Amino acid sequence: xxxxxxxxxxxxxxxxxxxxxxxxxxxxxxxxxxxxxxxxxxxxxxxxxxxxxxxxxxxxxxxxxxxxxxxxxxxxxxxxxxxxxxxxxxxxxxxxxxxxxxxxxxxxxxxxxxxxxxxxxxxxxxxxxxxxxxxxxxxxxxxxxxxxxxxxxxxxxxxxxxxxxxxxxxxxxxxxxxxxxxxxxxxxxxxxxxxxxxxxxxxxxxxxxxxxxxxxxxxxxxxxxxxxxxxxxxxxxxxxxxxxxxxxxxxxxxxxx
Length: 257
Known about the structure:
Blueprint: H1 2-5, H2 17-23, H3 32-36, H4 39-47, E1 52-57, H5 65-75, E2 79-84, H6 92-114, E3 120-121, H7 122-125, E4 149-150, E5 155-157, H8 160-163, H9 168-172, E6 177-178, E7 182-183, H10 186-193, H11 201-204, H12 217-224, H13 232-256
Parallel strand pairs: 1-2, 2-3
Antiparallel strand pairs: 4-5, 5-6, 6-7
């Protein structure tokens, strides 16, 4: 079906079998990793040679992140969209471990570039690709501006992650409209498009404000009840990303001497 209609897809594989199945078991308890690898993945690779995965990292799996990326690359996955899981508690120590794993993967990426290997890590091109201080007074993301999402009932939201919150009371205030009636609540869409500091007093005074866009609106909404106030984990992640950027900048400066 995908081949017939020219549809490209993205997998959700978190690493080796132990890591992946720890949180993605089949409904009956079986291995979803074993369902994909190796036979079905081989078939998928023949249709779509460039394979990407959205890797969800959790506090209990973060120590194996670098190992898991290398494992999946060896199996034939080329592009990695890595992101910490939301809806759970991350500590400063967890993000310290995440930082070290990402730094190790930066070294692996350098090695792959030298070998001209078919490997990409989106984190290096997006979050870590931005220079320090680039995000000053830049708030929010593309939700409701560059993209929207529709639930099975036809309701329109800013992004798919907002739909996944599952809190009907919060969701009711996030609906822009309906596919049959169009945008009926433009003011709700405007909330996501708001890039001022008027509603972000906490962020406006934060030492990370030049290197943070205020957190994921969906994650913020789920944790604080508003898209404007970041969840604690989002603040820890922003600090972690800045530390990695500083390390990269220091390395680049040392290499240029």
